[in-house]
Each structure stands twice: as C-alpha cells, then as structure tokens.
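Summary: Need help interpreting a holo structure output

Steps to reproduce:
1. Submit the protein chain below together with the SMILES for zinc ion.
2. Request a joint structure prediction with the ligand placed.
3. Inspect the structure token block that comes back.

Expected: a single structure record containing both the chain and the bound molecule.
Actual: see attached output.

Input attached:
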Amino acid sequence: MTQKEFTIHSAQINNHCPNCFAAKSLTFSFFQNQKENSWYVQTLAKVRDELFCTQCKEIIYPSSWDEHIERVFAYHKKLSVPKKAGYRMKVKALWALLILIISIAALGLWTWIRYWR
Ligand SMILES: [Zn+2]
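--- attached output ---
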C-alpha cells in the first residue's frame, strides 16, 4: 500500500516572516493524504496545513504566528476545499465483485435445479 500526499490549496501571502522578517516569502499550503493499493484508493479526511518561508527555508509553526497571519490562515482555510473522504474501488475490484455475484447466482440456480425442481 502506498500513501501519497497531495496539495489541495497553496497560496503566497504578503505578511512578513516572524523569523527573518522578509516580505512576500511566506506560502500557505494545505495537504490531504491518499492511501492506495491495487484494489482501492482511500482518501483520508485529515487536512494538514503548513506555512513555509522561502527566504529562511523553514516551516513557520503556529506558535510564532501573529494575529495577521492567523487571519490570513483562516481565510485560506476556507478557500481550501478538501476532497471527499472515503473509498473508491478500482476496476479490478469491481470485476472481482461482479464475478463473485455471478458465481453466487449460478450456485443458487444450480442448487434450485438440483434439489427443489
Ligand atoms: Zn523567513
């Protein structure tokens, strides 16, 4: 099973970095995870957010955010619409399910013909 993280929303903000005080170097990103094997794809509901400074190359954690960054964060959190969480079967799994249903129906029909007719 492989797990991959994909970006659902990313935006550069105009606030100053609390570490290096550079302007226009901060980027908010929102990520969501997907687990996948050969039978199905599972999208997880949890959304991870990250504020990264391209100037000092560091992640800025919420403890060092000021109220302006928090306000911008709330705005971008509203803009990031996560994918619906849940399972999606692959074609291989759908075929296996179809063959299973046909097998059960055939067995039922055979039993009916053999014993109750
Ligand atoms: Zn910085």
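--- end attachment ---

Reviewer comment: DSSP finds two helices and five strands in the chain. Residues 17, 19-20, 22, 25, 53, 55-56 surround zinc ion (CB under 6 Å).
Status: needs-info
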